[in-house]
Amino acid sequence: MVTFRASATAILATALVASTSLFSTSSAFYIPGFSPTVFREGDSVPLYVNKIYSEKSPLPYAYADLPFLCDKPKDAKKAWLNLGEVLRGDRISTSDYKLVVGKDIPCEILCRKSVSAEDATLARDFIANDYNVEWIVDNLPGATRYNLGDGQAHKQWRYRAGFPLGKVKWSKSNIHNHVTIRILYQSLPPPSDGKLIVGFEVTPYSIDQGDNDECPNDPLKVAAFQAVDKEVEIQYTYSVQWLEEKEITWNNRWNLYLASTDVQVHWYSIVNSIVIMLFLTGLVALIIMRTLKKDIAIYNEEEMKDDQDEGAGWKLVHGDVFRTPKYSSLLCAILGSGVQVIVMTVSTIIFALVGILNPFYRGGFVSFGLFLFVFAGAFAGYYSARLYKVFRGPSWTMNAIVTATLVPGFLFTIVFMLNLFVWSKNSSNAIPFGTFFALVLMWFGISLPLSLVGAFFGQRKEMIEHPGRTNQIPRQIPPPVWYLRPRYTVTLGGLLPFAVVFIELFYILKSIWEDQYYYMFGFLSLVFAILLITCVEISIVVVYFQLCDEDYNWWWRSFFVSSFSAVYIFLYSMVYFTKQLSIDHFVPGLIYFANSLMICIIYGLLTGTTGFISTYWFIRRIYAAVKID
């Protein structure tokens, strides 16, 4: 991916095959090596409580720690969490809900809780902000069912993960103190006679205190609601139903959670991206096949040397085009981190395409992404050292250390400062000290040494050869044409990569900030491949016209042309914040924009490095194709 020599047609064809299986509603999601849990009659099935979350706030809270709910069991056990689950605010622990295979429970009292006025106010705030509850049974999140079809005649049941903590009615916040739990199961044929859990539905109710002295027989007939805006005694109850399911199997049990996205919109996104890419491809072909080929032929004609100054001007700067740029050490460090991001992103998408990373695997994307980023430090050190050697830097070890610490250190500082605000809100999204220690250990114990190892091998490689020699005295750069000034080329050049991804970006933002599952990995791989091709082409086109204008300062511009689309993505995230979200508090807003900034930095590194590497290869090729005295 660093040199991007793969055929664009092959990339698109491979991704298209993958996408047709991934957006199909009959596709199965599983982790290779994981097998279903077989339950038998009378077995106890644990119900895990996780957190409450809201689309109106990026601050989740641990369900077991909420003071207005039942106290956590004395023998409660916390589930082991991977790094991604910890960072996304998961806090999974056992509960007192009793689920026995095959045993229906009409109604069971969970606890009676005396809620103070202060805790009731906290509950009212959570309910007013539309917080939802996440429970887990057999790795399935508790879900509420809704009809995707038109009316009762055409029912298409789908799941929405989570269920409301309460609801607001008549200006009062009413907590859901009764839940009906429905466990859907698939019966295995003899001789196994076991059951596989294929569905976990939760229907919440608010039951009036007067009717709640004893457990009601039918909560559906209870019309009153329980307000929790003052000190009150609340009784929490639940019912359990075990229902055999004939159509849903264990392999496709996630389909009801995932089949709610309009696939046609994603195809519109792909068509939009392909049109932009084909436009740029035609422009690049025109330059390379006609203009550039003609230029090279003219330059190589001995009898036409006297007319060379009247032709295109890119050969005139052959003695300065490979001159070491300003801040070359910084450029090496940034490009090394960009290579690291490219390796991480490509590897993560491949894992997603083959089915290892999917909604079944909570926190998988974050966990795999972090570990891949850490181990890709070797690639960062290698490429940075090779480029540093071209610029004749004095200390490759210092360059490797800067490469391994500059960008990660900046991002880590943002995360640490942001975490102070999250801690102040007692959110489960606050990163524990142990996790911080693990991140630092991964950074200094794995990524930094690997960067040094990669730099060691990189500096031992032969220096990248440049055609011709660099003049001792820099050539004077003539005043540029107005439309080739850096502010115009960079600003307009960044628009095209953004135009390729902005439709798919909407669904990615929804999955990040509105707790919706994103599973269109085939479409994602298509858009990603088109994005990289677009970055390659726009960087080459802009730098070619810049060289024709006799401006040889292309090093930084080749990076900024495609990476500037990150600025547009950040502006788009601001529009998304105002149009799609209802965040109206300082800390949640700070979390949103700080995370958006970090995402845009990573995206900018990816696109900018892709543009630089391709442009660097292009320039070496065209100057090697002409005779230079």
TrEMBL record:
Taxonomic placement: Eukaryota, Fungi, Fungi incertae sedis, Mucoromycota, Mortierellomycotina
Protein name: Transmembrane 9 superfamily member
GO terms, biological process: protein localization to membrane
Any one of the GO CC terms: membrane
Keyword field contains Signal: yes
Record-annotated membrane-spanning stretches: 265-288, 330-357, 363-384, 396-423, 435-457, 488-509, 521-547, 559-578, 590-619
Compartments where found: Golgi apparatus; Membrane
Assigned keywords, A-Z: Golgi apparatus, Membrane, Signal, Transmembrane, Transmembrane helix
Presence of keyword Kinase: no
Family of the protein in this entry: Belongs to the nonaspanin (TM9SF) (TC 9.A.2) family.
Membrane topology term: Multi-pass membrane protein
